[in-house]
Design goal:
It is a single chain. This protein is an alpha/beta fold. It has seven helices and seven strands; from the N terminus they run E-H-E-H-E-H-E-H-E-H-E-H-E-H. The longest helix is centred in the last third of the chain and has 14 residues.
Length: 209
């Protein structure tokens, strides 16, 4: 068995931990894992950390939008062959709870995190994403980045984020910034005036040769 899709929720009968152990016993060599859940990550994170810790042959992971907490990212960073981290379509995989990723600050303890990662997707505030990508332990060889932005930010913050990508991620050929507001996204009326919205100068880091 190389590809497995699971639906996860907090359970006492049978315990979620027992379910995780059965997966590790029956399919220890999975290369693709899809996780679907309507639960917040904080309710099931300990068991999912145990699951990821036992699946060291993974190459592709698909998780709900708000499941990539700092702890989950740190655990995935130790997976030697992991090439793709993908966010599931919300209608299929659930989304989790945005509060679980409101503060995104993974701490890496391995000498070379994400040694094989090429495609990365995550949900975070722009400032937190910039801080993560500026870290010396961040994956440097990614060719595709998808960022679901938790809240609309001002142009200088977006410009800084794009500058980080332009200066530190030379192999990057695809960048997707998703500003589509979800039901829980903060909205502050009225909208900013045109002069306070992103413009061509905001995007200039991506346009530089």
């Amino acid at each position: 068995l190389r590809h497995l899709a699971i639906h996860v929720h907090r359970s006492n009968d049978p315990p979620l931990g027992a379910y995780v152990q059965s997966i590790l016993q029956l399919a220890p060599s999975l290369t693709k894992l899809e996780i679907r859940s309507q639960s917040p990550m904080r309710d099931i994170q300990l068991e999912l950390l145990e699951l990821l810790r036992g699946l060291r042959d993974l190459r592709h992971v698909v998780v709900p939008m708000y499941f990539l907490t700092g702890e989950i990212m740190a655990e995935l960073s130790r997976t030697p062959r992991l090439e793709t981290i993908e966010l599931a379509a919300p209608i299929e995989g659930g989304i989790g709870d945005s509060r679980d990723v409101a503060t995104f600050q993974p701490v890496f303890t391995t000498r070379r995190p994400f040694p094989a990662l090429r495609r990365l997707a995550l949900a975070a505030h722009l400032q937190h994403a910039s801080r993560f990508l500026l870290d010396n332990s961040a994956p440097r060889d990614i060719s595709s980045l998808y960022l679901y932005v938790l809240a609309i930010d001002n142009p200088p913050v977006l410009n800084q984020f794009l500058g980080v990508l332009a200066t530190r991620f030379k192999p990057l050929t695809e960048v997707h910034l998703d500003f589509v507001l979800g039901p829980g996204s903060p909205i502050v009326p009225p909208p900013p005036p045109p002069t306070a919205r992103p413009s061509v100068p905001t995007l200039r880091p991506l346009l530089s040769p």
